[in-house]
Amino acid sequence: VTNGEFRQYRGSREKEAFISFIEDKLWEKLEAIPSWKSPSSTFMSIISFFFKLSQILRKMHNKMMEDYGIPAWGSYTIFAMVTIMIGALLGLLLVFIIDQIYPPSAVVKKSSVTKKKKAPGIYH
């Protein structure tokens, strides 16, 4: 990182190689990464959130298997059911929000009794 610009080091992960990359200023030859890939960008914050969430879910899976003795298929079943329930609740919430923003139009009911057309020339 220099002057708020990030450059990605793709060389060897050995200490000496990285130090020589810095000391020889080889980083100056690299193009700065786009701002949306910056660690402080909104996009990367969202990616970071999902990575943390995956770690939490993995810990929950291990806890269910190790502490509670639930088999792996049982843990996956629980996660599947919770995912379906959360999806259903979010779907209902989305429908509610859309109905508040764009309320449904009034439905005009047609009369169940329809007037019969009289045949021409016949009077009652």
TrEMBL record:
<keyword id="KW-1133">Transmembrane helix</keyword>
<feature type="transmembrane region" description="Helical">
    <location>
        <begin position="78"/>
        <end position="98"/>
    </location>
</feature>
<dbReference type="GO" id="GO:0005789">
    <property type="term" value="C:endoplasmic reticulum membrane"/>
</dbReference>
<keyword id="KW-0249">Electron transport</keyword>
<keyword id="KW-0732">Signal</keyword>
<dbReference type="GO" id="GO:0015036">
    <property type="term" value="F:disulfide oxidoreductase activity"/>
</dbReference>
<keyword id="KW-0472">Membrane</keyword>
<keyword id="KW-0676">Redox-active center</keyword>
<protein>
    <submittedName>
        <fullName>Thioredoxin-related transmembrane protein 1-like</fullName>
    </submittedName>
</protein>
<dbReference type="InterPro" id="IPR052454">
    <property type="entry name" value="TMX_domain-containing"/>
</dbReference>
<keyword id="KW-0813">Transport</keyword>
<keyword id="KW-1015">Disulfide bond</keyword>
<keyword id="KW-0812">Transmembrane</keyword>
<keyword id="KW-0256">Endoplasmic reticulum</keyword>
